[in-house]
Design a protein that fits this description.
- There is one protein chain.
- This protein is of the alpha+beta class.
- Helix content is 35%, strand content 23%.
Length: 708
């Protein structure tokens, strides 16, 4: 065997193998081969936080095979992902496989195509030990916080809980927002909305009351609104001012990890995990008709807005040939990357800008096509000319005869725009709040008399701040410097899987358990849930990566203060136990009569008598639904598969073996009267085999979907 190339992913290995041919063997480590064992702390705190790594369980055979392949190879290249985690995986591979850290055997591919792969192999480097130290520091920090703090939280609230360095901050953001919502007191306000018809048109346009001869007015009650409406009885309306202007709208920059997750959520309805899984597939590559094996996008974990000049030139050629020279700006547009960004990679862009989504559609899954289309359009649009809009703002005075004589009037305003040159919006529309409020206006000029078609007073109330969605939480984490592109998905997944947060439609709502955990940490460990403290720690990790800070010294600085706080918290809360309402039940213990409580054990939740140790009665926790079994009429209960997936079955099992993945509802079938179940896509169905009734959900307007 001449040359061995080790990558992380089997699909990536498959793509690269096709570029390199028979002189190379490309294989995969399938992620980390070595890590801190989960069964213990695995960090020697007294010996400068020395990590105690071991081979990941189940990978012993793979490691043996890799060692055999290394012995036979003339040259070994480590081509794991080009980031902290990838660098650490290469370091672990080198250490376990007996490769010298002085060898120049580390190769990086920001994109998976023939040119990039061959160029990477022609310019190997040494493993970047500063990058490795930064990953080790993060891993050790997270292990120390998780393994020291989790037992404390579990002891004070409920067995089996966890607390993490970054997840706890994310949870606090969600809990703090919920407290803001509860404390919010809505204020009433009114608007007066009119529909006018201009002399040049038969179609009405909208305008809103903004004030009177004294200036702007905010209406706070029905009485104030009615007073204005009364003034406007038999009023005549005249256009008093027409302001025309030009607006030049700039395109959004190409995607970073954070903005990709936000936009995929907003436009495609993808959760972060789905977005990153699909992006990983596009990066690692697949067979594309007419092009062979190739990766379609650059590395998807990045916070940089930089793009290569080669990619810019190829994209510019495509834009000019496809849309015309006028769709390119006079000077190339460069986006400024924020100071805290890593800038080790480019922004997320297509590896071959000339390869349009339409050309690759037949080679991709539906998710892959949707995401590639989003990335390609955003990138190409970022290089295109501005959108030029002609804007118009109109002021309208309304007054009855008496008010005219006294120079009194009510003022209405309307605004709109027309597109003079579409520019980048030919590919990618980015609506602003002003665009959404503006409407198309008819040809109109000063002194035009308008006909009032409708005049209504409308009551409104100020709204509390919205709960975070996954996308808006990621945006907040990025803005505050908490976490990094590679960690956003795992942060959200962790707080959801721990049941600290639940999804309510698209919003993230804290559970009672999540609020209790945050309350305890805010009181006893204020730094751990402090956004600025955590952001500063992320900044210190970046300094380790650049070789400016020694990671062992950094760990000492953090841990010494943390351990002191932990010991103090243990002393202050000795004997304390936080009781949750969600743990209480109205199910009596059949042995002693006490109301049983929900406990969590190794195999999940169960019911236990609170009279322990006098009464040791326990029994399985049965989660009942409001539905009845369509076969025997028994209760439908929630169950879990061996892999933890929720399904539903009859409580008369094994006499009745009814089961379904469809979610039970409290609605009844109008045809046979049995319970309806919700299928994928929101379809309500009767599972009575003799009935077969189904009804599709009503289509929602875009406004309703946005509000959700």
């Amino acid at each position: 065997m001449a040359n061995l190339v080790i990558v992380e992913s089997p699909s990536k290995a498959k793509t690269i193998q096709k570029y390199l041919g028979k002189d190379y063997t490309v294989t995969a480590s399938v992620g980390h081969i070595r890590d801190l064992p989960a069964a213990r702390l695995s960090v020697d705190v007294k010996n400068d936080f020395a990590p105690k790594y071991s081979i990941v369980k189940g990978k012993e055979k793979l490691v043996k095979e890799l060692k055999g392949m290394v012995k036979e190879a003339d040259k070994v290249y480590l081509a794991t992902d080009p980031d902290r985690e990838g660098e650490a995986i290469s370091w672990h591979l080198a250490t376990v496989l007996g490769l010298s850290l002085d060898d120049e055997n580390r190769v990086k591919f920001n994109e998976i195509n023939k040119t990039s792969v061959k160029n990477g192999l022609e310019h190997p480097e040494k493993i970047d030990l500063d990058l490795v130290d930064a990953q080790q520091a993060r891993r050790i920090l997270d292990r120390l916080v998780g393994y020291k703090l989790s037992p404390f939280v579990s002891q004070k609230i409920r067995r089996g809980l966890s607390a993490g360095r970054v997840q706890s901050v994310a949870l606090r953001l969600i809990v703090d927002r919920e407290e803001e919502i509860r404390a919010f007191k809505p204020e009433e306000y009114w608007s007066i909305d009119a529909a006018f018809i201009a002399p040049s048109s038969k179609r009405a346009f909208a305008a809103s009351f903004v004030g009177d001869e004294t200036g702007k007015i905010k209406l706070t009650s029905k009485e104030e609104s009615d007073a204005i409406l009364q003034r406007l009885e038999n009023a005549e309306y005249t256009v008093t001012e027409v302001k025309k202007g030009t607006r030049r709208r700039q395109p959004a920059p190409p995607f970073t990890t954070s903005t990709l997750q936000q936009e995929a959520s907003r436009r495609l309805g993808f959760q972060g995990k789905r977005t990153m899984k699909t992006a990983q597939e596009l990066y690692e590559g697949m067979e594309i008709q007419g092009h062979g094996a190739m990766g379609l996008i650059t590395y998807m974990r990045t916070d940089s807005l930089r793009i290569s000049e080669e990619a810019r030139a190829e994209a510019n050629s495509y834009i000019e040939e496809t849309f015309g020279k006028e769709y390119l700006p006079e000077k190339p547009r460069y986006f400024k990357t924020k100071a805290s960004a890593q800038d080790g990679h480019e922004a997320i862009r297509p590896t071959m800008p000339s390869l349009s989504p339409a050309e690759v559609k037949d080679s991709l899954t539906n998710d892959q096509y949707k995401l590639y289309n989003l990335i390609w359009n955003r990138f190409m649009a970022s290089l295109m000319s501005v959108c030029v809009q002609d804007t118009v703002k109109i002021e309208i005075h309304g007054a009855n005869e008496a008010d005219k004589e006294n120079e009194r009037y009510c003022t209405f305003a309307a605004s709109g725009y027309t597109v003079r040159f579409d520019g980048f919006t030919k590919l990618y529309e980015t609506m602003t709040e002003d665009d959404e409020k503006a409407s198309k206006l008819p040809a109109i000029k000063k002194a035009d008399s308008l006909k009032c078609k409708e005049l209504l007073g409308n009551q409104h109330f100020t709204q509390p701040p919205a709960r975070y969605t996954e996308a808006s939480l990621v945006k907040m984490l990025e803005e505050t410097g908490v976490g990094r592109p590679s960690t956003y998905v795992s942060i959200v997944s962790t707080i959801l899987s721990r049941e600290y947060v639940e999804r309510e439609k698209k919003q993230l709502k804290p559970t009672e358990l999540g609020e209790a955990v945050t309350g305890l940490l805010k009181k006893q460990f204020p730094n751990i849930v402090n956004v600025k403290f955590t952001a500063n720690m992320e900044s210190d990790l970046d300094k380790v990566e650049h070789g400016d800070v020694d990671y062992i010294a950094m760990l000492h600085t953090f841990y010494d203060a943390f351990d002191e706080t932990l010991q103090k918290a243990k002393a202050e809360t000795e004997g304390m136990k936080i009781k949750l309402k969600e743990d209480q039940t109205d199910i009596p213990c059949e042995k002693c009569g006490r109301m049983m409580v929900i406990k969590t054990g190794r195999f999940g939740k169960f019911l236990a008598c609170p009279g322990y140790p006098e009464c040791k009665n326990t029994k399985p926790l049965v989660v009942e639904t409001k539905a009845t079994c369509p076969r025997c009429g028994g209760k439908v209960i929630e169950k879990k598969s061996k892999k933890g997936y929720v399904f539903y079955g009859c409580d008369n099992y094994p006499e009745c073996n009814f089961m379904t993945w469809d979610k039970p509802t409290d609605e009844l079938c109008p045809k046979c009267g049995k319970s309806l179940f919700k299928k994928k896509g929101g379809v309500l169905a009767c599972l009575n085999e003799d009935c077969g009734y189904e009804t599709k959900p009503e289509k929602k307007s875009k406004k309703d979907e946005a509000e959700e």
